[in-house]
Amino acid sequence: MSIDAVVKTVIINEDGSGRLDLIDRPAGRGSNDGIAGQRSLHFDSAPEEVTALNWRPIWGSANEIILGERKIADRIGYTRIRFVERDLFVAAIVEYNLRQTPDLAR
User: Fold this and answer.
1) Which DSSP string corresponds to 34-47?
2) Out of 3, 32, 64, 68, which residue is the most buried by the measure of CB atoms under 10 Å away?
3) Total-model pTM
4) How many angstroms separate the CA atoms of 59 and 4, rounded?
């Protein structure tokens, strides 16, 4: 099942597990609405910066989850994910944020 969503909320439990609550991605200029595909994706552990995904668009296939142009997680089954290593996750967040606000890159 493909994913084309916005992370509405990141929920983190005391043991480090949690979930990403998803909503359909609203249409951008010249595009159609995305379809979340799932209402949530669950994880056993996450990089400490995982809340940076709040209100960020994600997409992916049955095998991976992408932020911008970088993989941030592998899909493990229908509603479970395993995040990439922390340095790769942080790099994806930084790259996404710089692409959204190019003046910061100067």
Assistant:
1) P--SSSEEEES---
2) 3
3) 0.89
4) 4
Helix ranges (DSSP H) in the chain: 86-100
Stated as kind and residue range, the H or E segment containing 99 is helix 86-100
For the chain, give percent helix, strand, coil, nearest 5: 20, 35, 40
Assigned token pair, 90: 């942080």
**Tens digits of per-residue pLDDT, 47-96?**
999 999 999 999 999 999 999 999 999 999 889 999 999 999 999 999 99
The Cα–Cα gap between 36 and 2 comes to: 8
Any idea what DSSP says for residue 50?
G
Q: So where are the chain's domains?
A: 3-105
